[in-house]
């Protein structure tokens, strides 16, 4: 079970699979999320021509949407797949790195109750367990 300040790397990766950048929104990495969103939009605008949107000019129906999807070139699909995989990997890596930083910042824990310890006293102020050695941040 994750602690309250921890992010779930697999959830971040799954959200990035749904749409590149969405995992970064979950991580509250706003600039990275905006960069992934804009990368998808700009690469699709660059790789997809006007012939793809031509079936949609008569109105948006199921048939016209399917025709537009089938008209997307292979290069655009490969680029979107690569962007999605890279976004998933980046979101997973960012969540893992953020969890490591949270673990370091949280500091020493009580061996009995697991709550954070105060470095100035030699007992746990939560459960009153006496500590035999001085508290350091590397427990």
The level of helicity is 55-70%
Q: DSSP strand (E) fraction?
A: under 5%
Q: Cα distance, first to last residue?
A: 20 Å
Total individual domains: 2
Describe the structure.
This protein is mainly α. It has 2 domains: 98 residues, no CATH class; 33 residues. The chain contains 6 helices and no strands. The protein starts with 8 loop residues before the first helix and ends in a 33-residue tail after the last helix. The model has no long low-confidence stretch (mean pLDDT 84).
Write the layout of secondary structure elements.
Layout: H1 9-18, H2 22-26, H3 30-47, H4 50-53, H5 62-70, H6 74-106
Helix pairs in contact: 1-6, 3-6
Summarize the structure.
With 139 residues, the chain is an all-alpha fold.
Q: What structural keywords apply?
A:
rod-shaped, 57% helix, 139 residues, 2 domains, single chain, mainly alpha, 0% strand
């Amino acid at each position: 079970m994750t602690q309250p300040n921890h992010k779930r790397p697999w959830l971040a990766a799954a959200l990035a699979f749904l749409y590149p950048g969405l995992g970064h929104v979950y991580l509250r990495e706003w600039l990275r999320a905006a960069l992934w969103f804009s990368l998808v939009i700009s690469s699709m605008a660059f790789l997809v021509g006007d012939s793809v949107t031509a079936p949609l000019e008569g109105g948006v129906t199921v048939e016209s949407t399917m025709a537009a999807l089938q008209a997307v070139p292979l290069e655009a699909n490969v680029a979107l797949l690569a962007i999605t995989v890279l976004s998933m990997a980046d979101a997973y890596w960012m969540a893992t790195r953020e969890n490591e930083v949270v673990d370091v910042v949280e500091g020493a824990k009580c061996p009995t109750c697991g709550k954070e310890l105060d470095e100035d006293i030699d007992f746990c102020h939560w459960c009153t367990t006496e500590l035999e050695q001085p508290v350091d941040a590397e427990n």
